[in-house]
Design brief:
Elements (H helix, E strand, L loop, with lengths): L7 H17 L10 H5 L1 H6 L9 H12 L13 H14 L8 H11 L14 H14 L2 H5 L3 H10 L19 H13 L10 H7 L17 H13 L8 H9 L21 H4 L1 H9 L10 H10 L17 H15 L11 H10 L2
Helix pairs in contact: 4-5, 5-7, 5-17, 6-7, 7-10, 10-12, 11-12, 12-15, 16-17
Bound molecules: zinc ion.
């Protein structure tokens, strides 16, 4: 991996050159490289990027180290401790590691965060975000003990308590907390898979549809800016309920294809923002969801360019960062690898972002 220090101006020049080179020579992947391209001073520097690979062993080491340090390594994220389990755990499962060996330690820890839903750490209040990451970790472990830990009645009670009093179909992240589409997404997908009270879904599709913006993406709440994370949450919830058609999918697709940047190959989260590896999942997964809903019958993102961007965002000793020059973290490692995996095969479920085989197990368990 080559790290080069450049000024912003130099960086822009290089990006323009790469875009120009790639446009002119679609054959950059083929064996024969035209002489004209070989003569281009930027090609020599960037040619090795096409030969980069996913650093699987290094990422496994990176994530294992962080996962086994539950308690110490996650102190800095005090109100989101279950996330610090889910991110490395999901990354390891995507890399086909056997995660059953972590079962005892993770269950022991999450038990301390459990009320009905989960808090961000032991002795904290219930909150939808750590509830989501805790449940996903239990799904990934996919054992009778991990799923047996889920308190469905308690979850139902918690979900009823966070209904938005001002807006039908909307939810708050915690009691008296903020309302946004993340909350609706979490409630919807958990009600569906855990077979909770279907009345909790009343009005959700209509509310999500009302948050689609003039650009075609979905905002956090009505009248807010379209954003990759919220667009994923809103559309995934609709697909999960079989109600994808409640929004204008053509408009969504139009917004989405314009989020993959021509120069870098990765996605940005909003119009006029810079590329970030985590949107490989938040935006990339929407392409898979559009196929899952039946709206598209082929992959429309540029997979090769996205993979090249993720390759560039790898730390040589493991872990993925937001963009070159940043440090790796488990959040970007999880979502970089999740996006990477969704371009490759059918391993990962694009609604839940855990392996499909785990979703099958959970569905059978709660039949
Ligand atoms: Zn990011």
């Amino acid at each position: 991996m080559k790290q080069v220090n450049r000024t912003q101006n130099e960086q822009n020049q290089v990006h323009s050159a790469i875009a120009f080179i790639r446009k002119q020579y679609e054959c950059i992947e083929s064996e024969e490289v035209p002489q004209e391209l070989l003569d281009n001073k930027y090609y020599k520097e960037y040619e090795p990027l096409d030969k980069l690979e996913l650093l699987t062993d290094q990422h496994i080491k990176y994530c294992t180290k962080r996962l086994l340090n539950i308690g110490y390594s996650i102190l800095y994220l005090d109100v989101g401790q279950p996330w610090c389990i889910y991110w490395p755990l999901n990354a390891l499962s995507i890399l086909q590691e056997d995660v059953s060996k972590y079962e005892h330690k993770i269950l022991q820890y999450l038990e301390k965060c459990k009320i009905g839903g989960f808090g961000g750490g032991p002795y904290q209040y219930e909150h939808l975000a750590p509830t989501y990451s805790s449940l996903l970790s239990l799904f990934i472990i996919a054992s009778p003990a991990s799923l047996g830990m889920i308190d469905r009645k308690g979850l139902e009670k918690f979900f009823w308590s966070v209904q938005d009093p001002n807006e039908k179909g909307s939810y708050l992240m915690h009691v008296n907390g903020e309302a946004d589409i993340r909350a609706v997404y979490i409630v919807v997908i958990m009600v569906v898979i855990l077979k909770l009270d279907p009345k909790l879904l009343d009005g959700c599709a209509e509310y999500i549809a009302s948050c689609q913006t003039y650009e075609g993406g979905i905002g956090a709440v009505r009248y807010s800016e379209a954003h990759g994370g919220y667009a994923f949450c809103g559309y995934a919830a609709l697909v999960c309920m079989g109600k994808a058609h409640y929004i204008d999918q053509e408009k969504l697709l139009n917004w989405l294809v314009n989020r993959q940047m021509e120069k870098e190959g990765g996605f940005n989260g909003r119009t006029n923002k810079v590329v970030d590896a985590c949107y490989s999942f938040w935006q990339g997964a929407i392409f898979n969801l559009l196929q899952l809903s039946g709206y598209l019958n082929e992959q429309l993102m540029n997979v090769y360019e996205l993979k090249t961007y993720i390759h560039m965002c790898q730390n040589p000793t493991g872990g993925i960062f937001d963009k070159p020059s940043k440090s790796p973290d488990t959040y970007h490692t999880c979502y970089g690898l999740s996006g990477y995996s969704l371009t490759d095969n059918n391993f990962q479920n694009p609604i839940y972002n855990v392996p499909n085989k785990c979703i099958d197990f959970v569905q059978k368990f709660f039949q």
